[in-house]
Amino acid sequence: MTLLEKLNVNDRFANSIGARLVEIREGYARAELCVEERHLNGAGVCQGGVMYTLADLAFAAVANSRGLLTLGISNTITFFKSAQLGDVLTAECVETFNHQKLPYCDIKITNQEKALICAVTGLAYRLKKDFEYDSLM
To answer: Considering the chain, what is the average pLDDT of its residues?
Structure first.
């Protein structure tokens, strides 16, 4: 099983909201989600936790793309624009610093018009435990 398949299947929460990884390379990942009625908050826009989950899925792919089990330990999210019903959101995660223990990533979420919706930073911790998969994609 590839890392892409493993995370798309085993990240049950991300899967349950419709978030899907579409690309993984060492130090890079892209995930997508289409905003549906179930994603809207009381103000009628996409709930922030949905966008955080989408970013976290891409972050998990990048953090684990080096074959060691790596878990997020700190994240920040900044919202610039609301996501609307029907928007197709794309989270692109780039490993900014590949530290042996504490890798750091930047994640940007855009809509179908390439408008920046939010930005997330992620710090992770690499365990001394293999995270097994056949290939990235």
So the answer is: 97
DSSP string covering the chain, please? --HHHHHHHH-HHHHHTT-EEEEEETTEEEEEEE--GGGB-TTSSB-HHHHHHHHHHHHHHHHTTTSEEEEEEEEEEEE-S---TT-EEEEEEEEEE--SS--EEEEEEE-TT--EEEEEEEEEEEEEEE---S---
CB 61 within 8 A of CB 40: no
The pTM score is 0.96
Which pLDDT score, from 0 to 100, does residue 62 have? 98
* Dist CA 19 CA 14 (whole Å): 5
Q: Bridge partners of 130?
A: 68
Query: Within the chain, which residues score under 50 in pLDDT?
Result: none
pLDDT of residue 73: 97
With 0-12 / 13-18 / 19 or more C-beta atoms within 10 angstroms meaning exposed / middle / buried, residue 48 is: middle
